[in-house]
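User: Assemble these into one structure.

Assistant: Restating your components, then the assembled model:
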Amino acid sequence: MSNTPPYAPDAPALSLKLDDQLCFALYSATNALKKMYRPMLDRLGLTYPQYLVMMVLWERDGMTVSEIGEKLFLDSATLTPLLKRLEAQGILERKRAAEDERVVRVSLTAKGKALKDDAASVPGEAVTATGCTPDELTALRDALKRLRTDLMKTG
Amino acid sequence: MSNTPPYAPDAPALSLKLDDQLCFALYSATNALKKMYRPMLDRLGLTYPQYLVMMVLWERDGMTVSEIGEKLFLDSATLTPLLKRLEAQGILERKRAAEDERVVRVSLTAKGKALKDDAASVPGEAVTATGCTPDELTALRDALKRLRTDLMKTG
DNA sequence: TGAAATTAAATCGTGCGCGATTAAATAGGG
DNA sequence: CCCTATTTAATCGCGCACGATTTAATTTCA
C-alpha cells in the first residue's frame, strides 16, 4: 500500500535533482560567500578561515587551540597549520602553557590587535553584498544555526 | 551627528562577534553538512562534490566540463582532477569531442548509471538528519539560492 | 607510586576550491 | 588565407577540512 520504494523503507523517496537539494544551495552559497569575502580580506592579508580565527581572538585573546576549535567547530589538524601561518605573519604568537605543557595558548601581537580596526568595515560591506535586509539576515542566520546543531547531532 | 564610525563612512558599524555573523553560520553549517553526508557517501565510494557531479550527470548524461561547471558553479581547475578520479574508478568516461577538440564530454559508464539506484536513499536520510519539516527545507533552500545569486552579482 | 587511560596538539595523506597561467583548438576580421 | 582574439580544458600553487595516527603531558586509580 505504501509508495515507499524498496531501497529506503523508512525515508521518503526524495529527488536526486540538483536544484531541489538544500545541500547544494548551502554548499554553493558558501562557495559564493568565500569568493565575495576574498577581495575584502585580501586587503587585510587574511583568508576567510583566518578571518574567523581572528574574530574569535578579538573577542577573547589568549585562547587555547582547542577553545578556538570549539568556537569554530574545527580541529587541530586544520587549526595548527593555519595558526602557524598567522604566526609567521607576526599577527599572533603560539606558546605552550607553563602549567600544562599539552596546551598551546594563542595570543595576538600588537599587529594582530590593530588589524581589528581595519576589519571593522568588513561586516557592513558583506551585508551590502548579500542584498538582504537586517531582519532577513537574522532569520537566515538563526535558521542556519539550528540546522548546524541538528546536523551535528546525529553525526 | 551620525554615529557611523570613521573607519566605515558608508557602511553600518556591524558586529565583529562570531556568533552574530551570517557568514559563520553558513560556513559552519556547510562543514557540518559535509560531515553528515560522509558515512552515506562512503558507501557509494563518493565524496560530497563527486556526489554533486553525479547528480548533474544522472539528470543529463554526456555534458561537457564547462556545462557541469555552470551547474555547480565550479571551474575546470576543480572539476578536471575530480572527474579524473571518477574516471579512474570506472564511474565515467572523459572524451574529447570530435567536432570540437577543445571540448571534453563526460559520459557515465554502466557502473556510474547503476550508482543512481544506490544513491536513491541518500536525500531521504539527509532530510531526516536536518530535523526540519519539508516546508522549512524548501524555504531555507530558496532563501539560500537567492543569497547565492546576490553574492555572485557583485563578485 | 606506577601502569593505564585520557587529553592536547601536531602530523600525515587525500581531496577539494580557486586565482593565475598555459596550451591547444576554433572563430572571426581584414 | 593568415593573424589575432576567443574559448575550452588542463596545470600549478596554496590553503583549507578532516579522518586517522602519533607524540607528549597529565590524570586516574589500583
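Chain B touches chain A through 73 residues (CB under 8 Å).
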